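[agent] plan:
  1. take the single chain provided in the ticket
  2. run structure prediction with default settings
  3. attach structure tokens to the ticket
  4. add a short note for the reviewer (M.T.)
[agent] executing step 1
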Amino acid sequence: MSRLAARFESLAAQGRKALIPYVTAGDPSREQTIEVMHALVRAGADVIELGVPFSDPMADGPVIQRSSERALERGVSLKDCLDWVEGFRKSDANTPVVLMGYANPVERMGTKAFVERAKSVGVDGVLIVDYPPEECEAFGLACREAGIDLIFLLAPTSSNERMDQVARIGSGYLYYVSLRGVTGAANLDATDVAEKVKRIRSHTQMPIGVGFGISDATSAKAIGQHADAVVIGSALIRLMESSVKEKSDPIKSLESFLRSIRVALDELAPAK
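[agent] step 2 finished; step 3 output follows
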């Protein structure tokens, strides 16, 4: 059983929701990336999505775009991201790590070399935003053979056929994009999310994570009532960005804020 499958199974047995924070590798600094990952775990993260910086992050809003730009200015590469996962694994063998990014860096490294290195450093899943399921059967097979889950996005506009396709090829969890837009967008409608998640469940037994537009404990709790996991990214990066500008500790701010999300989600668990 993969780390992702084991984590979701354990949470389901406890009636708890998965908290999946997203951070961009190399931001707020190269040296702090592993420290940030450990801070996320201390704050209650169940899975970490580590963003691979890219020059044209088309699905990301301005906050994550800025973090990618800062990381690229520091020379952060896909190789660095894999090295940092390896460093993280030296003291954390349990927390699942998902690399989230775009096809270009993977293609430049070579899909075979990428999958081999990802397996060797302890990556549990990959989410390549611009790899549509109909075009990555071979990549999906390579990931599956390496024990790496291939995670896909579903949108409010996804057809039943797309849901079936993603359910067949994907594994780990499905990431439902709750808004028609980019990361960090507003106007989250929990009722609409509930209806869409119910529809997705009719096509798959995989856990369903919901992201885009979740910015605080209130919105996380509202979505957690319907999803198996809550994904939060832009709010975390915005907080660290502000902390750096104010010359306060971005990691301490991050940890404190994420812990409040964890507390809110745990309020949804059944009473013992």
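[agent] step 4 note for reviewer: Residues 181-185 have pLDDT under 50 and may be disordered.
[agent] ticket updated
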